Amino acid sequence: MIRDPVVAGMFYPSDPNDLRRDVARYVNDSGRSPDPLVKGLVCPHAGYVYSGAVAGASFAVAPEEVDTVVIVAPAHRYPVYGASVFGGEGYRTPLGTASINSVVVQRLNEMGLKFDSRAHSSEHSTEVQVPFVQYRWPEADLVVIIQGDSSEQFSGELAGKLDDVLSETENVLMVASTDLSHYHAESTANEMDAKVIEAFVNGDPSRLRDVLAGREGEACGGGPMLVLMNWALANQADDFRKLEYATSARASGDTSAVVGYFAGAVAGRG
């Protein structure tokens, strides 16, 4: 089964030449360079006109050599119990079809993480990451996970399963897909988002949990962020970085009700 694009022409261009041009511009105009120590990214998942430049800053710092990209993203369109791992053969965008790492997927299935096609059929939070992957690493395989349970306990368990399954997989990059605060005045959004970003940069999953649980900050992909942080710390990657932050007002000019976008990375110490 190949998963066809559902938000091409809405969240990003449907014409492959336009899409490749835009993604290249977002990555190259970030002014950032690949870092071989980077193991994971935090990337937004809005329409590219709003968040493409922020996402480009994340993908720009990822290593040159990446063979498998694990995308962990929240569920927006269909309720997911636990998490659903995409079980098809490929993930198509206007840039072509990215193959799925079936070995990793099978091992996750054996650990109790199953595939519910309804969760993946119309989810944008995963799809918008794929053209960036295809631009940076045309031959890379994907593992696509939609996380429904964003609790600290489940996120830690999922990170542990990924740590076990990926231990023998070379050149892995993990992407946590998330936007931050939604529909507050920009001044309020900046304050809320700063607390989420601070918890990430400090490498403190418990603090991030507290910020989100106490509604001091918002992140629709809070669970994926916790998965990334726990997985990174288990793999001796504790250099958590803020790369870029913006709100939708940068594109729209409307500061009355914005969405926050954050680009982050986590790297080893060398």
Outline of the structure:
The protein has 270 residues and is of the alpha/beta class. Helices cover 40% and strands 23% of the residues.
How would the blueprint of this fold be written?
Blueprint: E1 2-3, H1 16-28, E2 38-43, H2 48-61, E3 68-74, E4 83-85, E5 90-93, E6 96-99, H3 102-110, H4 117-120, H5 124-127, H6 130-136, E7 141-147, H7 152-166, E8 172-177, E9 182-184, H8 186-201, H9 205-213, H10 222-234, E10 239-247, H11 249-252, E11 258-267
Parallel strand pairs: 1-5, 2-8, 3-7, 3-8
Antiparallel strand pairs: 2-11, 4-7, 5-6, 9-11, 10-11
Helix pairs in contact: 1-2, 7-10, 8-9, 9-10
Radius of gyration: 17 Å
Q: Examine the coordinates and then state which fold CATH places here, giving the name of the CATH topology.
A: Protocatechuate 4,5-dioxygenase, Chain B
Largest sheet: 8 strands, mixed
Question: What is the CATH C level class, in words?
Answer: Alpha Beta
Uncertain stretches: none
Number of discrete helical segments: 11
What oligomerization state is this entry in?
Answer: single chain
Number of domains: 1
* Helical/strand content category: alpha/beta
Order of helices and strands: EHEHEEEEHHHHEHEEHHHEHE
For the termini, the CA-CA separation is: 40 Å
